[in-house]
Amino acid sequence: MKCPSDVIRFCLLLGCVLSGCRAAVHTPEARPLLLGVSPSMETLARGLIDAYHATYPLETPFQTTAASADEIQTALDQNQVSAALQWDIPGSKDWAAAVGWTGIVIAVNVQNEVSNFTPDQARNIFLGLTDRWESVGGAPGDIHRLTYEPDQDIGNLFQDVVLHQEEMAGTSLVVPAPYAMIGELQKDKYSIGYLPGFELSRAVRPVTIDHVTADYPNLISSKYPFRVPVFLISRNPVPPEVSRFAGWAQSASGQVVFLTLQSWE
User: H helices of the chain, where?
Assistant: First the structure.
């Protein structure tokens, strides 16, 4: 005697229910949200993202994509990235949250005896008005200035914040990114350059400005003069994941990342 097929299906389903089995459910992985950053912001972005997902592992993951400031704006307009981390003042069409501070750190070779500048001394060196180390308390020798390629936003930021929009001396050696800046500073004891505060390295000597270090308490309090805000920006309507990430970055947990990455210890 044959059982009707619908009876068989019912019996199988009943047996499954009684035995407590469940049908396999496929849960797709959350699609990462892209965070646009300039190459000079990648270290900070990775530090924030890693700490955020260590705290909230079930949140939608963020991934960074590096591009120039103009390319990031275009990517935001075309919904190719969900948000961007930047230090440029947001435009009128941006949703923005100020999430922290960083500083522009003047750095020299570790063998250089100079440990402090006034703001004007630092400015005059990069404007080409001061060409010799002994003029600022160092050992005799020519000053070898380092700067970044034109498409690096850290160079534009330096010109605004440190040089007050004046042109840097044309004799500067050009490097592509902070890692290359550190490498050149290591090789040449007469060199001088600059780095974002979160790219500090023991391989070079940071110089204080008016005897103030660019660590996070001095950035927050504005004691360090060459400081800049960091913004998380997006377009409206803002993805809720971006709003939550911004809120966390502004919290004590997020500020610890800024503090740790910009410690002079």
Answer: 5-19, 42-55, 69-77, 119-127, 153-161, 178-187, 216-220, 240-250, 252-261
